[in-house]
Amino acid sequence: MTDQSPVQADLPAADTAGGAGEEARAHEMRAPEMQAEAFQAVRQARRSEVAEDYLELIAELIELMGEARPVDIATRLGVRAPTVAKTLDRLARDGLITRARYRSVFLTEEGRQIAEECRRRHEIVVRFLLRLGLDQETAEQDAEGIEHHVSARTLALFAEFAGRD
Amino acid sequence: MTDQSPVQADLPAADTAGGAGEEARAHEMRAPEMQAEAFQAVRQARRSEVAEDYLELIAELIELMGEARPVDIATRLGVRAPTVAKTLDRLARDGLITRARYRSVFLTEEGRQIAEECRRRHEIVVRFLLRLGLDQETAEQDAEGIEHHVSARTLALFAEFAGRD
DNA sequence: GGTAAAACTTAGCTTTGGCTAATTTGCATT
DNA sequence: AATGCAAATTAGCCAAAGCTAAGTTTTACC
What we know:
2 copies of one chain form a homodimer. Chain A is mainly α.
């Protein structure tokens, strides 16, 4: 691969823009492999974000309302019914939920475990943000986006900071 | 819309699963509109994540290596060259970069501003995580995912906690 | 019990963001 | 100057996640 492929000084932008010491400056960049791994991990996480949102919400609906109906999932996610239908098909295909046509949705054991894990993370992140001084509304809001990108290590620190109770 | 559409007790899952008081329990859920807005905001943020990653990296490459070449972008993002090419086309279409065929990439004024904003956020998040006790490696890693989902309000608290210097 | 509304599904379109394979261009080195 | 290699592009594939419009099924209500 290219790796740290030599970027010489004879390139137009180099002399005009910076003016001095590209090679010396290059030291300040992270190692390309490290950076690539970080981005790959983020993309990995992105791929499960939607599924996690659905599973977490389905669990919540089942627990608090007795069942998870597509119409409620759609309302609470702010998407249209056909979008929900298609996503539920994928979740079923992946063995995370079970469903019968025109009926509400159930979690498989695997789906239940993921949902529980997500809920735990979500709550830690919310409590952490609240403890940091954020208002309830913004905390909930930001947690929804942040929770999918918090490593186990970071989550542990969040939990610790949020308070030992 | 459905809103808080009546979920009656004559549905199969309701009686068997929960057993008691769906309506009372429903109180514990967030308001559907609030929840929907939160998820919509997250989806909104998701749509700019990739663009922000590119712009931030392009700015970094230009500053530290004198220019931003597609091959380096690909290496550091951990994706293939054609993926970069297509994304750069989108960024150019959206007026965030300029480019000539077979040449390296430049930021427009708008792109530059977004990149700068992203970099600022990124650094705050990293410093915050480090201050929290995380190792450099994980901090960089998690920041890459978290930075796109931090509201202005939360960012301010992060900055405060990290300590302004 | 019939009927209308609500819920759900199906069909089909769009964009994004990834990939491989094959081609074209630019540069460096002989 | 020729040639080969690295970089970039193009073409074309795929899946995810959104949408509208139209059709089907269930439920609710009289």
